[in-house]
Amino acid sequence: MRHPFDGSSWKEFDKKYPNFSREPRNVRLRLATDGFNPFGNMSLGHSTWSVVLTTYNLPPWLCMKESSFMLTLLIPGPKSPGKDMDIFLKPLVDELKPLWQEGLHTKDAMTNTFFTMKAALLWAINDFPACSSLSGWSGQGYNACPTCNEDTSSVYASNKVVYLGHRRFLDANHRWRTSLGFNGEPETKAPPPPPKQFSLADIEDQLGRLLHRLPGKHPDFGGPKRKREEFELNWTKRSIFFELEYWSTLQLKHNLDVMHIERNMCDSLLGTLIMNDKTKDTSNARDYLKTLNIRRTQWLQEKGNKRVFGQRYFYTNSRPLHILKATLLPNTIGGGYEESQRCHYFNIVQVRVDLSFNIFEIMVRLVLHLPDEAIRGGSIYMRWVYPFERYMKKLKKFVSNKVYMMKIQSSPNFHPDLYALSIGEDKNAFTYTACIVNGDRFMVLGRDAKRITQISGVLAEEENGEKFYGQVEEIIELCYPNGYSTVLFQCKLFDTRRGVTFNNNITSINTEREWDKEDKLIFASQVKQVFYIQGPSGANQSKKTILFVMADIMPRGHGGDGAEDPPPPGGFRRGCQEEDVVLARKGRGTAKNIKVLHAFAKNGRKPLRLTFDRFATFSPIGDVGDMFIRDVGNYMWRNIVFDKDSWASVSEEEKNALNEHMRIRDL
Questions:
Q1: Which of 22, 206, 457, 578 qualifies as a FRET site for 127, CA 20 to 30 Å off?
Q2: Using omega within 30 degrees of 0 as the cis cutoff, is the peptide bond preceding 567 cis?
Q3: Domain of 644?
Q4: 574 and 597 both lie in a single domain
Q5: H or E, element range at 274
Q6: CA distance 298 to 598
Q7: In this structure, is the dihedral angle defined by the CA atoms of residues 299, 303, 306 and 308, taken in order, positive or negative?
Q8: Looking at the whole model, is its pTM more than 0.70?
Q9: Buried-exposed string 569-581: b where 16+ CB fall within 10 A, e elsewhere
């Protein structure tokens, strides 16, 4: 089977409408529709729907080519049309009606003659939710299967509806029929024939019982959710396709999409076998086993205050995939099957693997009907949505960028900076350990911790005045087209919701807890530089005091590494140019407080001679003077609270401690 022509539905259509089939140039169409988000991450809730037609009057290698696609409708968002899809399909159906009845005067380019060309919609192919919107049969509830209809075998297991009854395909004397291990009950239904086939007359009878409801979600029309009567089964509407004269006689109206079925089924089955995040073996499923009083080894076990899983089933080989390839797929693709083969896969899952009831979702149930549809519709690759999914990806590129549309339309709101942002950043980002922003040098915490000085503290302030304090952990540069770039700081932000105290222009915060660890990025242009010191003696060790904000004073040259760095140029609107990020190129010398120890040892561990300028500054001078100032300054930085306006304000206790420190070091 290489073409839909090989399926029974095509041949049955030819028998019912011989006048149409007598002209081989009459067109047979297939309809596909699905929703997509044209704006990507800019609008996560947006859904635009495309309706695409393609013709089967071509060789198999051309039918599914993009060149034969006809984009007939593009339904704008932002919401999915849902069960009101018929409103948007009305213009298309109105055009298909005369194409079937009168036809269209057409020229045959091959023979240079004219003929009356007619067209018929052979079937539709969609994923399962879209199939519900088009067909009118709801894909939820106890009768979710559109093929089994009201004969769907389902139960409410724990917190969801599952679809069972596969053991009825076994032979009447099969030992699994009498087993109570699956659901606590034997299988009493008769063996094959397969599930009940609802005739076209049965479907028409069900649709004739539907209540008349106006389309739309207005409260006057019943609102977005309408309660169905029991006799309406799962029908929500009579599809607009029934207005086509031939639609009610088609054997196969809405195809089950193999692509989505195989993906969802394999995710559920293999996810349960290897117990990943898509497993169906949940605590609710285990509780349901206890309700049925079966499989005691798999019940949840009480251990202290916790409930743990009982026995699990793991597969360490490729047996499940082998079953899929060797049993299910060949029968589906080949178009032929035996009843024992069709149920073989499901009984392996049900009894031999003995897994959770939750795995038997509607997608697993639909696999039963794929062989029947292969017989009716022909080869699967002519009836799945892979080509249309790729086509929708192409459609996304046309409208995903609003700014690009502004550029094409020469909108006055267009700006090159906005266009660069809309295209998106380069896939490769650059990281640095230091950079200059607004004249201030910042350094990452990992590198800053090895230094005596401190330049990793940041302060970010929102428009409402709320302040965030933290330290830079990583510096990231994002590059955009046309030479634009922006710099982000990944910061360790302290949780200041527990209180911030202000005293004499000194801010104290608690650094014990961090803010949201998932939201740590700040634009470099939005931060100010701050310095942290330990809180007063005796205070909580996690309490830190912000000494002062660097941005409130004039930025100056940066000593140490990178003192010769040039001033930063004008940068991007919300960041800085790549040239602003300058890596340190110079190494640091020996710290002066280390040098004083070396000088003391070199002097035979005798006190160093200290000289003062008694005429001008009254400060220590010379090499020893510089070392003395650094050593005393370091001690005061670590031990004297920075809330004194002069030396006279320092307490006698702190002065005596400083003198004792100098005596011990022989200064």
A1: 206
A2: no
A3: 592-664
A4: no
A5: helix 258-274
A6: 72
A7: negative
A8: no
A9: eebbeebbbbebb
